[in-house]
Amino acid sequence: MSDPAAPKVHPPDVMKKLTALCKSRGFVFPSSEIYGGLKSAYDYGPLGSELKRNIMNEWWRDMVTRRENIVGIDAAIIMHPEVWRASGHAAGFADPLVDCKISKERFRADKAPRVRPGDELPITAPDAARAKDWQELIAKDYGVQLVRDGCVLRGLRCVSPQEFGYFAPGAAAPSRTWPFRGYVSPSCGSPFLTEEKQFNLMFRTTLGPVDQLGDLARVIAELTASGDLAAAVRARFGKACDSGPLAAALASGERARILHAVMEHVSQTSLVYLRPETAQAMFVQFKNVLECTGLKPPFGIAQMGKSFRNEVTVEHFIFRSCEFEQMEMEFFCEPGTQGEWLAYWKAERMRWWTRYANYPASFRFRQHGKDEMAFYADDCYDIEYFYPWGWGELEGIASRTDYDLTQHERHSGVALQYVDQEKADPRTGEKPWKYKPFVIEPAAGATRAVLCFLLDAYHEEERRTAAGDTELRTVLKLHPRLAPIKAAVLPLVKKDGMPERARAILERLLDAGINAKYDEKASIGKRYAKHDEAGTPWCITVDGQTLQDGTVTLRDRDTTAQRRLSVDDALAAVRSALGA
RNA sequence: GCGGGCGUAGCUCAAUGGUAGAGCGCCGGCUUCCCAAGCCGGUGACGUGGGUUCGAUUCCCAUCGCCCGCUCCA
Predict the structure, then answer these.
(1) Strand B–CB A205 distance below 7 A
(2) What is the ipTM of this complex?
(3) Which class for A446: exposed (0-12), middle (13-18), buried (19 or more C-beta within 10 A)?
């Protein structure tokens, strides 16, 4: 074993090997594989679904069951669309993005530098070599030979707000022109850009059985039948055109933008989103939970479940996928106490993660800088895991002030506050004290937890085969409470009544609610190896001696050592190690 | 989304412009008293779609998926 004070050193190519093991043993399959797979979606198999459930159960037990002042909810994935306007997701999750075709960089169109007709448009490369590459790229793709001056390429100029052109040295008129949108790439100054792409990270769908596309098609057909689109839009939508997105689109005069705004407007009535996080339901149900439970701050509302985001990049197996699972808790406390509660939850959450890990030093805190925190947060820490590709997020613990309750109060018009009959308002000195609680949010990724505990558990060890060769033993050293199968019950050989004795032991485990498997196939060594890969902590083996004196062997996954015990003692050992 | 690489059985690989073989795995049988033993039998693949061709797994195009890097990540 490596230094317990240092992060785990992952075996070479561990992601590749782990992905293969996940598939062959039934932890995680690529989604819809027989149809060629679906990007970034994964299905949890017989072992994976047990592992994920065990992890989530451990979280729920630690966060909800054992705490008097924390309760759970299980909200609908589809919520009222106004929720996402209040939370800021509707606006914040959608930006117009553009790619520079020269430097291949992506940027936000609304933050790009603007230029005016007559302005020169020099393209600046980071070094002379790249300037030369870009010069050739532009010659090839656009048919003009720009003049290179060190890192700078010259010859382009803005002609009008809709057009830029190439001016040969000394020429007064452009020899070629291209359409223009008035801005250039912020990093290199290039005007060669892709179309603006509207990114919307929330999954959209429609609520209701009516075919929305049919409605949209009809409206668009009617509006575009007349020559004057703007007039047709104004005539049809009246007051809606006076302000908001329709007004802005009409003001721009761009047909595509107007039609886009019209489609948004028409689809508004049935448009809903799949939640991009589970957190908002806890704020939205704050009042109901408060009334039915009678809880007083400090208290928490917890929820586990699926969330959906159209991630720009999906990567690293199940680390970042569009459909993922979260374990979140919103902890409501008195304003002014958020600092101490943040410290408390940091410690609690780190204790939880490291409790199940072989390498506690693979977990660490990282405080967010002011620039990366949401504007309303007053402090934020990530719990990070040392993945094979480096440190990465596992859980965020944010101090969110009273922002969310304030936003939902504003948008819903419903007071979301706590009335403390015993305390006086610190500002006025009057009773009762009505306040919006401040929130500490430990938000963990359940899907990421699966990956992190698999990585923590994955080991390759040298072992000697019966033939005397050296081989690698692959073993998942999962914490017994997380392991999908707790014990395998194996007859040493498939005869002399051993299968019957083994099955009787299996029955006792299953009756006790312990997930166990019976296996009589192949040689005993093969069966041990298979269960090592599945992360099964114990193998109970029935052999010749069992028939004589009723004892069995109990094999430990991590050491492969065996103890001979009575059946009762073996079962008791399993039960007590599970803490059940 | 961009750039690069990849795609033959569950896995690792092989062969071929004339419809594909092996090892391991998996399933069944025999055997086996402790760490992937042995024997017999079986299962099983050219990612998808188009084009060229008498004929494509092989050549071309597109598409999908995976990996690496960049970018993005309220």
Answers:
(1) no
(2) 0.91
(3) buried
Would the Cβ of A134 be found within 7 angstroms of any atom in strand B?
no
Q: Does the CB of A580 sit below 7 A from strand B?
A: no
Whether A556 CB is under 7 Å from strand B: no
- Look at residues A431, A454, A477 and tell me which one is the last residue of a structural domain: A454
pLDDT tops 70 at residue A257: yes
The C-alpha atoms of residue A196 and residue A163 are separated, in whole angstroms, by 16
Annotate A458-473 with b (16+ C-beta within 10 A) or e (fewer): bbeeeeeeeeeeeeeb
pLDDT digits (tens, 9 = 90+) for A273-313: 999 999 999 999 999 999 999 999 999 999 999 999 888 77
Q: Are A567 and A545 in contact (CB under 8 A)?
A: no
Decide: CB of A445 under 7 A of nucleic strand B. Answer: no
Q: Residue A95, CA: closest nucleotide via C1'? A: B74
CB < 7 Å to strand B — which of 389-408 in chain A? 389
Domain membership flag for residue A86: no
pLDDT band for A123, please (50, 70, 90 cuts).
confident
Could you say which residues 209-248 of protein chain A have a Cβ atom less than 7 A away from any atom in strand B?
none
pLDDT value of residue A468: 67
Question: What's the CATH number where A567 sits?
Answer: 3.40.50.800
